[in-house]
Amino acid sequence: MIWSMAETRTPNPVLLYDGDCAFCSSSVRFAERCFDASRWEAVPFQFADLEALAAFTGGQVSERRAAHEVLWITPDRRVSGGAQAAARLLLRTRRPLWSALGALVTLPPFRQAAAVAYRLVAANRQRMPGGTPACALPPAGRH
């Protein structure tokens, strides 16, 4: 089944992630357990209507981008990727320490440090706990 933001008319932000990556999927399951999943929705990009999301967001969503970084899409069409998507999720929680961490990650120089850390983890996600060789990012020419 293809998920569509327009069809579901969700009032909540959507976390678009790589559902083929075991590390990504287990990270999302952890977030769903710990961060009030009633306030956001997680959708594997493989099951999302990416064409409709691209139109909805003015071209900010693509298969290539979704394969390389987690995306946070708000109902008012704002898109954050990578570490900033994670920060938006943390800001949405009702847990003060996690929310404070999310706020911190949006500020320089923490924003830049978080982006570097995110890219490092993403580039090595097949080596992370729960990761498998199938988790490796696609080569630059794919997608």
List keywords for this structure.
4 strands; alpha+beta; about 140 residues; Glutaredoxin; four-stranded mixed β-sheet
Can you tell me about this structure?
The chain has helices at 5-8, 22-34, 50-56, 63-68, 83-92, 96-105, 110-123; strands at residues 14-17, 41-44, 71-73, 79-81. By secondary structure, the protein is α+β, with helices and mostly antiparallel strands. It has one domain: Glutaredoxin (3-Layer(aba) Sandwich), CATH 3.40.30. A four-stranded mixed beta sheet has the order 2-1-3-4. α5 (83-92) packs antiparallel against α6 (96-105). The longest helix is centred in the C-terminal third of the chain and has 14 residues, at 110-123.
In short:
The protein is of the alpha+beta class. The chain is built from 7 helices and 4 strands, in the order H-E-H-E-H-H-E-E-H-H-H.
Blueprint of the fold:
Layout: H1 5-8, E1 14-17, H2 22-34, E2 41-44, H3 50-56, H4 63-68, E3 71-73, E4 79-81, H5 83-92, H6 96-105, H7 110-123
Parallel strand pairs: 1-2
Antiparallel strand pairs: 1-3, 3-4
Helix pairs in contact: 5-6
